[in-house]
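Pasting as-is:
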Amino acid sequence: MARLPRLYFPGCAQHVIQRGNNREACFYDEADYKAYLSFLEEAAIKYQVAIHAFVLMTNHVHLLATPRDEQGISRLMQAQGRKYVQYFNFTHGRTGTLWEGRYKSTLVDSDSYLLTVYRYIELNPVRAGMVSHASEYPWSSYQLNALGKPIQLLTPHALYLQLGKTEEERQDAYRSLFRGRMPERELTAIREATNKAWVLGDDRFKTKIEAKTGRRAVPLQEKGDRFIFRLIG
């Protein structure tokens, strides 16, 4: 089946996943994590992309970001990825590719899913059994969003700012979102939308995106469990 064209929509948040080739490690030590975040910040400024949340896992990366124009995310990922590969190969005496083909992404309905995706991203180390709580993992945006530790890379989303009138109120409200486990239905919805290039949102949002982009936001079901994708127009 041919790959779906990417969905681009300026001003709309996107969940992005970038994996190491063959799921191999793309971070070996603390210097690697710091280098990745430094290159990401440079690219975000250059291509006018607001980074709201992130987690750097051993062999993959999650981002929640809002581009100012249609090509912002694509240019960000290309520039940052290329620069980090050059750094990583030189530093660790290796050659060849580091990333697993194209990054994966989905548009996120802010009203329905934005804070859920924040939580999904920052809970990755907990689900992986690396830590018992998100606060224990140093390479995620939880350190700022919940604990107030400075991370210059990040730009808070408008919905995050609505959590409280002060930084302390917002951080306290944000921490409360992490009580208990995420429902399996939310995990499944986020994973499927991102990995298969569907839109993550309610029916109203999906209809809006279809009208704006000319591409279906959800799969069409055909003959039981088989799915096909159809381009509009």
